[in-house]
Amino acid sequence: MFAAERRQLILEMVRANGAVSLRELARVVQTSEVTVRRDVRALEAEGLLDRRHGGAVLPGGFTRESGFPQKSHLSTAEKTAIADLAAGLVGEGEAIVVGAGTTTQELARRLARVPGLTVVTNSLLVAQALAHANRVEVVMTGGTLRGSNYALVGSGAEQSLQGLRVSRAFLSGSGLTAERGLSTSNMLSASVDRALVQAAAEVVVLADHTKLGSDTMFQTVPTELITRLVTDEPPLHDERAAAELQALADQGVEITVAGPESDASGGDGPPPGSRPRRDMPLPGQRRTQNGGLGPQLRSASALADVPGERGARVADLRRR
Question: Is 82 exposed, middle or buried, given 0-12, 13-18 or 19+ CB atoms closer than 10 A?
């Protein structure tokens, strides 16, 4: 493929998806990341896109949200590795909330193996992934369907989460920075994600390295409310992503990084939590949203009307 053809294809991918990693661009145009980086630099010089750590975005600073068909094909290996590690955080008998997104969908596929689990979600994709798990109970929020990501949003979704209390919230988004936290490009999605955060004692963010340093329009989770980030190993040349990870750790976010061997299981390998991982040290003990150091769970009152509903049981809620 000639350079002009490569660059045209790169530009089309960025325009279609809003943000694309160098790794993904190199795979699609069938060349090395070094060559793709050179192409991206040339396109940036023409004002056609902006370079970001490990990738390229639409010009203008803020990335826009991609639709599900585009996002489902981006960073698939990274999402698999992240989902493998995140599933290892969930114990038998817990009650959790899981937000919308392609990474959380991957997580849901692995949660089907956790007995006695209750999952509250506004995502049709998450619910579908757990639909045939006979040991997992799925509770859907109300709301209006947002077709671009198959999520329920609006006042109905937010009201159905009032009074709910669970052990953890698992969320993804469009961008993550140490300065601003997790963000997304859609106001309705951001509002529901904030309601999910309020329902949880701990917040776990799932974000691959291409999201690090990216900022989008609507903040969903400020950095001080993020308990843990599960991400993948940034490329060696990606100094900005590494710096962002360190900045998040300095603010008290516990960082779990999937090793390079985590990429290929597809959920069929060893059990969740057994994947190679690297935990960055937690600088200091974090406080919970209600100001306590050791949150006490109460049963999710919003689930009390479900026949046979069991209370949320969590083995260990102490901050590490």
Answer: buried
Residue found by looking up tokens 């990606």 in the block: 238
- The verdict on pTM exceeding 0.70 is no
Paired with 219 in beta bridges are: 183
Quick check: 56 and 50 in contact, CB under 8 A? yes
Which H or E run includes 219? strand 218-221
Helix axes 33-45, 22-29, angle to 10 degrees: 110
Q: Residues 245, 255: contact at Cβ < 8 Å? A: yes
Q: Would you state the structure tokens that stand for residue 112, as one six-digit string? A: 């089907």
What the block records as the tokens of 225 is 């409310």
How does pLDDT run across 271-293, given as a tens digit for each residue? 444 444 556 544 444 434 444 33
Which residues have C-beta within 8 Å of that of residue 232, sequence separation ≥ 6? Answer: 75, 78, 81, 82, 208, 209, 257, 258, 262, 263
Closest listed residue to residue 1, CA positions, set 24, 34, 35 = 35
